[in-house]
Write a structure and sequence with these properties.
It is built from ten helices and six strands, in the order αααβαβαβαβααββαα. It is of the alpha/beta class. It has two domains: 54 residues; 214 residues, Alpha/Beta hydrolase fold, catalytic domain (Rossmann fold). It has a six-stranded parallel sheet with strand order 2-1-3-4-5-6, with helices on both faces. The protein is globular.
Length: 299
């Protein structure tokens, strides 16, 4: 890690040096071009440039030669470095595109399910595009539920919106599977609390803060994060509801977003799967986790 930091520092210094050298070379070229003009013409062009600056009017330059400003300072272009978030997003997009190359027949999907629907519910600040590989693996009956995952909407409101859609599924007589990641798992539980008539077949929770997460204290200005503080009213109300669904809970002991990690180990689940990779987003891009989810939903 120390060598990597030194390498990044050297690269940034080299980039800054290159920009400065380019500016110096541009200044030298402009100076030489100005010196090549006759003295009278050069002074006349400078006077025209000064009048143009004062009046805001454009002065024609019949000679089409560069007009040198009195200020010979090189143009300063601010250097921009990619943010850590953009680097993570680029990594996830690359791995997601790589996962789309997985053959569908490598993990057989049950296609004999009629009148059935599977929902994938992403977590906070997630990009729904990352779930396309899993959605394709699960089949045409799988859908990604799009909602406001900025954290600005309380989970009770998000659950009510999702419950309305589940009520429509119940009226059509559809059975439903769920894959809820992180905060999305809490949205699934709230929606099922509000729509108990939903014909649930199986549920998968991935790194969801069923008993809260200490990271929520870092974002007290977001209503959704306040809902998942340990011991919140929302969690007490949710955990008091009876749960009788076939459920797989995937959790990570060293999760960096769900602290402590065992908060994602849903006590009412029927199966558990421990992921030892200390990255909250790992199940999104892991082929092994995708295969385990598909296998559970196909049982």
């Amino acid at each position: 890690m120390k060598r990597l930091r030194v390498l990044l520092l050297l690269c940034s210094l080299a980039g800054m040096s290159a920009c400065v050298n380019m500016g110096d070379r541009k200044q030298d070229v402009d100076t030489r071009k100005s010196a090549a003009l006759p003295c009278e013409l050069s002074m006349d062009l400078r006077d025209q440039a000064d009048r143009s600056d004062r009046t805001g009017q454009k002065i024609s330059n019949p000679s089409n030669r560069p007009i040198e400003s009195k200020s010979n300072e090189p143009l300063k272009t601010p250097m921009r470095f990619p943010s850590p978030a953009s680097l993570v997003n680029s990594l996830l997009e690359t791995l997601a595109r790589k996962n789309t190359q997985v053959k569908r027949d490598a993990d057989p999907i049950q296609n004999d399910l009629t009148n059935h629907r599977t929902y994938i519910v992403d977590g906070i600040w997630g990009n729904h595009v990352y779930w396309e590989p899993l959605r394709e693996r699960l089949g045409d009956h799988c859908h990604i539920w799009h909602y406001d995952n900025s954290g600005k909407t309380p989970l009770s409101s998000l659950g009510a919106d999702f419950a309305a859609e589940l009520s429509a599924c119940a009226q059509r007589g559809e059975t439903v599977d769920f894959v809820g990641f992180s905060l999305g798992g809490m949205v699934v539980r709230e929606a099922l609390r509000l729509s108990p008539e939903t014909n649930v077949r199986r549920v998968v929770f991935i790194n969801s803060p069923h008993r809260g997460t200490a990271v929520a204290y870092l974002f007290p200005f977001l209503p959704a994060c306040r809902d998942v503080k340990p011991g919140s009213d929302f969690l007490r109300r949710l955990n008091a509801v009876e749960w009788n669904h076939e459920t797989l809970a995937i959790w990570c002991p060293a999760d960096t977003s769900i602290v402590p990690g065992h908060s994602a180990k849903f006590k009412k689940a029927t199966k558990f799967r421990c992921c030892h990779v200390p990255a909250h987003f790992w199940p999104i891009i892991s082929r092994r986790e995708h295969k385990a989810i598909a296998s559970f939903l196909n049982e």
